[in-house]
Amino acid sequence: MGQHRGDEGARGVSKGPVIAGVALVLVVLAVFGWMKLRDRISEQGTAAAQTCVEGDAVLDVSADPDIAIPLGELARRYNDTAPVVRDHCISVTVTPAPGTAVADSLATGDPAHWSGPGPAPALWIPQSSQTVNRLADHPGLVSGQPKSIASSPVVLAAPPLLAAQLTQRRTGWQDLAGLQSDPQSLTASGLPGWGSLRLALPTGPQSEPTALAAEAVAAAVSGAGAGPVTAEQAASGPVVTALSQLGIGSAFLAGGPPANTADALTALAAQTDQAAGTLHAVPATEQQVYRANRTDAALATFTPTGATPVADHPAAVLAAGWVDETRSRAAAQFADFLLQPEQAQTLHDQGFRAGDSERAGADAAVPFAPVTTALAPSSGAVSAALTDVVAHPVEARSTTVLLDVSGSMSATEGSDTRLHNTATTLAAQITATPDGSDVGLWTYSRGLDGTKPYRVLVPTGPLTGPVAGVARRQALETALGSLTPATATSTYASVEAAYRAAVNGYASDRPNSLLLITDGPNDDTSTSARQMLSAVAAAADPDRPVRIDVVTIGPNSDTATLEQLAQQTGGTLIPVATSDGPELGQSIGKLLS
């Protein structure tokens, strides 16, 4: 009888699936273990970095003194976060430093030659971008585009009564020069007994608001709008006139202008009789006035109409090369920290504008009003030129220019003739001469006007006055643009005639001069050097002093005689090597002003 298969015993379980399952478990465990090991390695790497395996590094920050105090507090807050850059533990120190001093030291391009306050910085925060712009000739020194950490518009600090009156009359930046130069301008504006606007314009270190205010005046006078002010606008007669009037008024304040903005604010607040005080106003940042008022200074702010200059306190990160890569990166990281919204309140508490909101806590004296139109900053060169006019005002004077147009002036220098170069340079300098000046133009060679070796192209008179139906400036420009070389050089006879005319036409309210520009010796034997010197001495009048200034171009065997001529009249002789270099313009500009 057959047997059932079950009778042969139970069937065995297949080993294949079991082995596959075990293998899968082992793979999963291996992957999990690898991931845990990877995470541990990563954590160990992070921990190693946090232990600053490269050691400590100090980030030195040079900051304008006005913002250095809140920056010091923010630096301590940043240090508490234990920042690490490239395996270095970073700590930040802030040194107060005037922007001009830092800029001058940075311009050396070598940290070994650092002469500014404190250690050489990796991060620089001056009061304004104009100060950073002074380093335009040193590309690569600043890394990237500096970002504004905090801002403060430039205003005029003044006694409340004066600030209110100027605000009510909607006084603009372009009006300040007239208020400064007119002895009774404020009296006529409704403030009896105040006289003129005694606006102090400090130009020493820590006087950046003066430079910013000068740009605002230049923009308003030249029609530059929101700017930036160009080099051509800065050199124009109206701008030079306005800034010179402001600078002269500041220079003649009793005791001279204070050394810097802070000293001016202190002196202004200390006056018991504001109307009769030594000064009436000073350009300052809104923040500086706010801080002064916290010590009971009782000053008010006035914002002239027109584009408003703003102290933007840019964070300039110095590039690797000036400092090492670690500190340069740390500077960028700290600058980003300062821009975080939670840091704004610390800056607000010191009177700065920061973040997206206006500073809270405005009052009647410092209202923190919105800036309608901000003035775009000019280049470093333009800003320096404007400030230089304020510090060294161009005085209105009466000058007759006597220009050599002899054959030797046809020599080529550079890309053009000596005469064309000289005429172009002279035209540019006359453009920058203040409106209040008198200027005339004579040329000389031989037989230019019948038997006379000279010709009066534009008679000496006010630059703003008419000549044959056109403005004298235009007449001078046209005459200079049409000159052609002639023949001989009758210097001595021409000097005699021009000097007598200058003495006879003396302007009693300003310095008077004859400016001789020549490139060669006198070759007219009808008048000797001795005769010319004697004739000039005889024509001189101590009650009507006229100085003779001389610019000689290139080698000139007559230099000794011309120098004696200048000396006996109280003038100056300046030799320049060529007509196509900057020395000619600098020399003419100096003698015209």
TrEMBL record:
PROSITE patterns attached to this UniProt entry: VWFA
Entry-linked SUPFAM superfamilies: Periplasmic binding protein-like II (SSF53850), vWA-like (SSF53300)
InterPro entries named in the record: VWF_A, vWFA_dom_sf
Domain VWFA: 398-591
One matching Pfam family: SBP_bac_11
Mitochondrion among keywords: no
Source species, domain of life: Bacteria
Gene3D superfamilies hit by this protein: von Willebrand factor, type A domain (3.40.50.410)
Signal peptide: none
Transmembrane segments: 12-35
Keywords annotated in UniProt: Membrane, Transmembrane, Transmembrane helix
Official protein name in the record: Substrate-binding domain-containing protein
Organism: Rhodococcus kronopolitis
